[in-house]
UniProtKB/TrEMBL annotation:
UniProt key word Ribosomal protein: no
Organism from which the protein derives: Saccharothrix ecbatanensis
Cited function: LuxC is the fatty acid reductase enzyme responsible for synthesis of the aldehyde substrate for the luminescent reaction catalyzed by luciferase.
Name of the protein this chain belongs to: Acyl-CoA reductase
Keyword Ubl conjugation: no
Length: 458
C-alpha cells in the first residue's frame, strides 16, 4: 500500500520514492508540478470552505470510529507496517493509536474548538459580529517514530478549513495516507484537500516548492531540523514549531503516603513504558522524595516487568542497544560505590530501573529506562530541572493539596506547558495547548463587525 496520498485531481506525473527498513520497502509518489498542486489545492479549498465545521467534525469522528476498532483492516495493515519500521511491538502501537484516536472523536474536537475559539461556528461565518478564517494551505513537516503523530496537526488544519501538504515521517510513514483513504470514503471533500508525500531532508528544492504553496507552516523535528525550516519561512507565513522537548516526573512524600509505593510505581512504569519511552511526553527521570525513593524503585522493577509482559517492548537497533548497555554499566558502576544507588534489570534489554541520588547527564533516551533520583524536597526537584527549562514540556506531578497547586504554578513559570498525574504523561488531550500555544486559534485570523447598524439586526 502506498505511503503517499494524492487526490484524484493531482497530476499523474509524480516521481516515485521508496522508504525502507531492513528488507522491507514501502513506495509512494512525490509531485513534480507544485504549481499544479497549488492550483488543485485552491480549488479543493473552495469546497472545504463550504463544509460546515460541525460536518467536518462529524466526518473525522466517523473515520476515527472505524479506526478505533483494532480489527479494522486499514488499521491492522498500518500497525503491522509501523511495527516493521519503528521496531515497536504491535501492542505498543495499538495502545498508542487507541489513545491518539480517542482525542479525535467529536466531543474532544468540539471541546478544543470551543476552548480556543469560543464558538466553533465562527469558522462558518459571522457569529455575534466576529468570524475566524483559516489559511488556504498548511505545509506540515512531520518527523519521528511515534505512531499517529501527524493526526493532531492534520485534523487541526482541516477543522479551520485549510488544505494541507503533509510530509510524512520516514520513521513512521504509514498512518497519514492510510487514514486519508478512510477519510475519503467518509467525506471525499476533506481527503481531497490533502496531499501527503515524502522528500529527503536535504531535498531543499522540493521543500521550497512546497513552501511556495503554503500560507502556514507546521514543523516537527529536532532543533537543527526545525531551524533549517524556520530560516526558509517567509514573513507572511504563519509558523508553528514542535522541536526537541524533555519531560520529568516529581513525586513528594505526601503523594506516596496517600497512594502507596506500589501504586506510585505502577503509574511511573506506565509513563516509562508507553511508546517505549520515545515520545517527548515520556519522562526522562522521576524525582522522588528521599524518604520513599528506594521503596518506589523496588516496586518499580516488578511494575516494569509486568508492563513488558502486557505490552512487549520493541526491537532495539545495534546502536541503541550499545548505548543502553553503556547506560546500565555506568549506573552499575555508581551503584557499586554508593549506598544510595542501585540497578534492577533483567538479562535482556526489555526494561531497566536505576536508583540514584544525583541526576546524571541525560545521555540517551527511551527504551524503557526508569530512572528514580531521590531528592530532599520539592524545591530541590525543581532546581534539578532548571538547566533543562528551555526544552521542558511535560511534568508528571505526584503531589496533593496546596503544595500541588503551588508547584504546578512554579513549573509553568519554569517552562512546562503541561502538568498531569503520574501515569498519564503520554496521554495528552486534544484540549492541551500543545507546547504552550493555542494550536487552532494560532492558525486563524479574525474579522470583527463593529459600529455598523446591521450588527444590531443580525
Amino acid at each position: 500500500m502506498s505511503v503517499s496520498w494524492m487526490p484524484q485531481w493531482a497530476p499523474a506525473d509524480g516521481v516515485p520514492f521508496t522508504l525502507s527498513s531492513g528488507p522491507h520497502e514501502w513506495r509512494g509518489v512525490r509531485p513534480v508540478d507544485w504549481a499544479a498542486i497549488g492550483a488543485g489545492l485552491a480549488t479543493a479549498h473552495d469546497g472545504l470552505r463550504r463544509l460546515p465545521v460541525r460536518r467536518i467534525v462529524d466526518a473525522i469522528d466517523a473515520a476515527v470510529d472505524l479506526w478505533s476498532k483494532r480489527d479494522f483492516a486499514a488499521r491492522r495493515d498500518t500497525v503491522r507496517d509501523a511495527a516493521l519500521v519503528t521496531g515497536m511491538s504491535e501492542e505498543t502501537i495499538d495502545r498508542a493509536l487507541d489513545g491518539e484516536l480517542g482525542n479525535l472523536r467529536a466531543e474532544p474536537l468540539l471541546a478544543a474548538l470551543t476552548r480556543e475559539l469560543g464558538d466553533p461556528d465562527v469558522l462558518d461565518g459571522f457569529k455575534g459580529g466576529t468570524t475566524a478564517v483559516g489559511p488556504r494551505t498548511v505545509l506540515a513537516v512531520f518527523s519521528g517514530n511515534v505512531p499517529g503523530l501527524p493526526a493532531r496537526s492534520l485534523v487541526r488544519a482541516l477543522l479551520v478549513k485549510a488544505t494541507v501538504i503533509a510530509k510524512v515521517p520516514a520513521r513512521e510513514p504509514h498512518f497519514t495516507a492510510a487514514f486519508l483513504r478512510t477519510l475519503h470514503d467518509v467525506e471525499p471533500v476533506l481527503a481531497d484537500a490533502v496531499v501527503a508525500t515524502y522528500w529527503d531532508r536535504d531535498d531543499e528544492e522540493t521543500l521550497e516548492a512546497a513552501l511556495g504553496q503554503a500560507d502556514a507552516v507546521i514543523a516537527y523535528g529536532g532543533d537543527q531540523a526545525c531551524a533549517a525550516i524556520r530560516a526558509k519561512v517567509a514573513p507572511h507565513q504563519l509558523y508553528e514549531e514542535h522541536g526537541h522537548k524533555l519531560s520529568f516526573g516529581i513525586v513528594d512524600a505526601g503523594y506516596v503516603d496517600r497512594h502507596g509505593p506500589a501504586e506510585v510505581a505502577r503509574q511511573i512504569a506506565a509513563d516509562c513504558s508507553d511508546l517505549d519511552q520515545h515520545a517527548c511526553l515520556s519522562p526522562q527521570v522521576y524525582l522522588v522524595h528521599e524518604q520513599h525513593a528506594r521503596p518506589v524503585a523496588q516496586h518499580l522493577a516488578e511494575a516494569m516487568r509486568r508492563e513488558a509482559q502486557d505490552s512487549p517492548p520493541g526491537t532495539i537497533d545495534t546502536q541503541d542497544a550499545a548505548m543502553l548497555q553503556h547506560r546500565r554499566l555506568v549506573a552499575e558502576w555508581r551503584a557499586a560505590g554508593s549506598d544510595h544507588s542501585e540497578v534492577w534489570a533483567p538479562d535482556s534489554l526489555e526494561w531497566t530501573v536505576v536508583l540514584d541520588d544525583t541526576l546524571m547527564p541525560l545521555s540517551g533516551a527511551g527504551n524503557r529506562v526508569a530512572r528514580i533520583v531521590s531528592v530532599p524536597d520539592v524545591a530541590a526537584a525543581v532546581d534539578v530541572m532548571r538547566p533543562y527549562a528551555e526544552h521542558l514540556q511535560n511534568v508528571g506531578l505526584g503531589m496533593v493539596g496546596e503544595e500541588f497547586r503551588r508547584t504546578a504554578r512554579e513549573l509553568a513559570t519554569l517552562g512546562a506547558s503541561r502538568v498531569c498525574a503520574p501515569g498519564a504523561m503520554t496521554k495528552a488531550s486534544m484540549v492541551w495547548r500543545h507546547d504552550g500555544q493555542p494550536r487552532i486559534a494560532a492558525l486563524v485570523r479574525w474579522c470583527d463587525i463593529e459600529l455598523h447598524p446591521e450588527l444590531e439586526t443580525s
